[in-house]
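User: Batch of two.

Assistant: Item 1 of 2:
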Amino acid sequence: MLLYRSAVWFAKGLREYTKSGYESASKDFIPDELEVQVPGRAFMVTGGNSGIGKATAFEIAKRGGTVHLVCRDQNRAEGARGEIIRESGNQNIFLHIVDLSDPKTVWKFVENFKQEHTLNVLINNAGCMVNKRELTEDGLEKNFATNTLGVYVLTTALIPVLEKEHDPRVITVSSGGMLVQKLNTDDLQSERTAFDGTMVYAQNKRQQVVLTERWARAHPAIHFSCMHPGWVDTPGVRLSMPGFHARLGARLRSEAQGADTVLWLALAPTDAVQPSGRFFQDRKPVPTHLPFARTSSSPAEEEKLIEILEELAQRFK
């Protein structure tokens, strides 16, 4: 079944996820939806020092928004912040050094953040694809700790902050790769099977889609969405998937093209980005399952994911 899913997904990707796929889809975009200025609105972008996150932060800064960059590497983050300020002319760019794979650090960060700042939009962009099983200091598998638990802790901790503001939104940068995975709550830390970083990453991205759907139902005052940026030429792809990067080469999207739907979900009029809880690709909601792929999960499986994440989140609070 995985072979079938992967074949269908790759064929779909060649049609839709490449640069030409973006160019085709963009013919239906409404340009005015991003012709906005957002002074007074605050945006948090995790992983905002490179790739899609940096492109997103820069475009928001150009439109007058206050941007909070949440990054792990201080030197690279400071360089990105300086560049965004210089090129956008916007001084309201704040930097926060946080390792999202460390839940204790995430909790502490949010406690400090909410004492000093407001927030309208959270963009969960940071992620990692570690190709050999690696544990954090807390004994958590690194991909899961960053891509799933880190996103869960940051988002749930910030929900009370977001709910106080007008038109709050949470956007999670997932991946079309999740289409090859069915939610698996029996081995969240990748302990029981041979480790495949690409498949672990895809499973994490499936988990993010499930979380988005659950959050949307539980918190109707906030607009939740997740999205697939397409196949994008980023430092992360070049580092973690060198073979894929070499194979696709010039067919990969630019970072700006990858960031387009993130920006649209963050900035477009509220009625344009409805409904909440959906998975978006190129500014439109798309299915979260391939035909005949048998990747649907039961409510009980989804509830088990929430319970495990909540237990871990509270353990490290």
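Item 2 of 2:
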Amino acid sequence: MKMHQEYAKGAAIEAIPKLPLSLPWMTHIAVSLVSHFTDYIMRRSDGTVNRSLIRLLDLKSPRIISPIPNVSSTDLTLDPTRNLWFRIFSPSFASSFDKPLPVIFFIHGGGFTFLSPDSLGYDIFCRRLARKLPAIVISVNYRLCPEYRFPSQYDDAFDVLKYVDEHPWELPPEADLGRCFLAGDSAGGNIIHHVAVRACRSTFEAVRIRGMISIQPFFGGEERTAAEIQMPVAPIVSVEKTDWCWKAFLPKGEDRDHWAVNVSGPNAVEVAGLEEFPAVLLFVAGFDPLRDWQKRYYEWLKRSGKEADLVEYPNTIHGFQMFPDLPESAQIFYEITDFVARKAKAP
């Protein structure tokens, strides 16, 4: 376990954020706008969303225009009937390396309800990831709630993994499918956990998953944790919003102790017996109401005999990696690079 700057190792402990939260003014404005629109304008009390308004406000990055130098991209469609496609990011200097590059399957966040791989923020993040590691990054588009409920999102992400395994020639020649990693933030962090479980029970020809990079995964339960009580309304995330997202995601009649939500709870799908379950690098932030659920996930993995590293940033927010003014948004790339390098060398 690591705590940013202190780098203390040991069992999971409570990271107490320093109050009050201080954000750079540009980040403060961006966070306030995102919170306001997703809390009060895009979501409706009847469980639907204003999808037309979302499309208008969700700035897109065309694949032919790169806001990050030295990274190219291309889009591949698997199934137009369910809008299943993915964007491949490749550093332009990939061919100059002596050996192939690892492959990162990235699943975006957004409460299962918002955003996509071509959303400007995620396009930029994946390009930075591809350039800094360096790696081939595959960013997956999946069906969104409430129009499509569980398990659509898990099915879509897993189907992309299987497709790439069966069609390796679709990737750049520098891609090494023997060194694959699953990565995701928020809802994407939830999705990659369940995809990893499915992958352990499936057969792959080329893909070998070496690790998972879980950035503030979206987990929950019926119980109210200390963090949720302490921070019912926080930047980007509020308890009311997470409740709404779970209701839009779950099959009707199910509660938040469903195994998809409370992954370490009473209905959990056990991973102790899954020998191929990958090592996990988990990021937690002090000003995230979800942090206690994320720490329970870490502790559950350890009890299950799985390898897990916890990196805590006590003084930042949910989605910090999307805001370049925050110092943690740069630090995270060092942590990811180190993790990928270590796990890619494993036999």
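The first strand starts at residue 2 and ends at 3.
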